Amino acid sequence: MRFVGRKQAGTAPESRKRARFGLLDSGFPSKMEKIALEVLRTMQPRNDDYSRIEKAILFLEENYRRQPELSEVAASVHLSEFHFHRLFRRWAGISPKRFVQFLTLEYAKRLLEQSHSVLDATYDAGLSSPGRLHDLFVNVEAMTPGEFKAQGAGLQISYGFHPTPFGECLLLVTERGICGLGFVGKDGRASTLRDFGGRWPKAHFKASPARTEPYIRRIFHAEKPNGHRPITLVLRGTNFQVKVWEALLKIPMGSVTSYEDLATTVCSPSAARAVGGAVGKNPIAFLIPCHRVIRKVGEIGDYHWGAARKRAMLAWEAVRTQGERN
Question: What is the arithmetic mean of pLDDT over 147-172?
Answer without folding.
Answer: 94
